[in-house]
């Protein structure tokens, strides 16, 4: 799987994925090193809530697989990467298209490598702000991931 796990392929697959496509979510950019992703949530009549603003479930969905998929691309096939926990703080109604930028720093990657070197699991936490077309924060999403080396790649600790 991982030899086909390239930014362009991931972007194409996600943009065709029915939960994203149907909600009006589009991946605008994935950097070649998977460290930066930009996503848009289009405001359409079918993804508005009863107040005629962006549906909260769509806002939360636009952040769902992103950090996990980024880390899968960065860390490669030697690691399990799963979403573990998430929560959202709705700050103001979304009345325009919404945007989110996801970034994973070199420091975070180094920390994950260090923490998992002996086969331990780690739970990195990420925060992403969802902004409207004017750059104002509409919601803040916290995502916690589970990361661990797969058993065959773990260093064996002498007993």
The strand line-up of the biggest sheet is 1-2-4-5-6-3
Shape: elongated
Structural class: alpha+beta
Beta-strand content bin: 25-35%
Mean pLDDT: 93
Query: In which range does the helix fraction lie?
Result: 25-40%
Q: How many H/I helical runs?
A: 5
Distance between the termini: 35 Å
- Number of DSSP-assigned strands: 6
What's the story with the biggest beta sheet? Answer: 6 strands, antiparallel
Order of helices and strands: HHEEHHEEHEE
Oligomerization state: single chain
Radius of gyration: 17 Å
Low-confidence stretches: none
Account of the 3D structure:
The protein has 159 residues and is α+β, with helices and mostly antiparallel strands. The chain has helices spanning 7-16, 18-23, 56-61, 66-75, 106-116, and strands at residues 25-30, 36-41, 79-90, 98-103, 125-132, 137-149. A 6-stranded antiparallel β-sheet has the order 1-2-4-5-6-3. The longest helix has 11 residues, at 106-116. The protein is elongated and about 55 Å long. The protein starts with 6 loop residues before the first helix and ends in a 10-residue tail after the last strand.
């Amino acid at each position: 799987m991982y030899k086909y796990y390239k930014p362009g392929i991931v972007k194409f697959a996600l943009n065709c994925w029915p939960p994203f496509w149907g909600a009006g979510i589009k991946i605008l950019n994935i950097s070649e090193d998977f460290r930066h992703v930009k996503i848009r949530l289009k405001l359409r009549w079918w993804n508005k809530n009863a107040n005629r603003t962006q549906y909260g479930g769509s806002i939360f969905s636009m952040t769902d697989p992103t950090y996990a998929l980024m880390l899968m691309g960065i860390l490669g096939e030697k690691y399990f990467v799963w979403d573990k926990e998430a929560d959202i703080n709705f700050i103001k109604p979304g009345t325009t298209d919404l945007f989110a930028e996801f970034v994973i720093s070199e420091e975070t990657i180094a920390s994950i490598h260090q923490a998992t070197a002996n086969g331990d699991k780690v739970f990195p936490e990420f925060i992403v702000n969802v902004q409207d077309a004017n750059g104002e924060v509409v919601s803040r999403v916290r995502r916690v991931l589970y990361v661990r080396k797969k058993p065959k790649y773990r260093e064996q600790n002498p007993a």
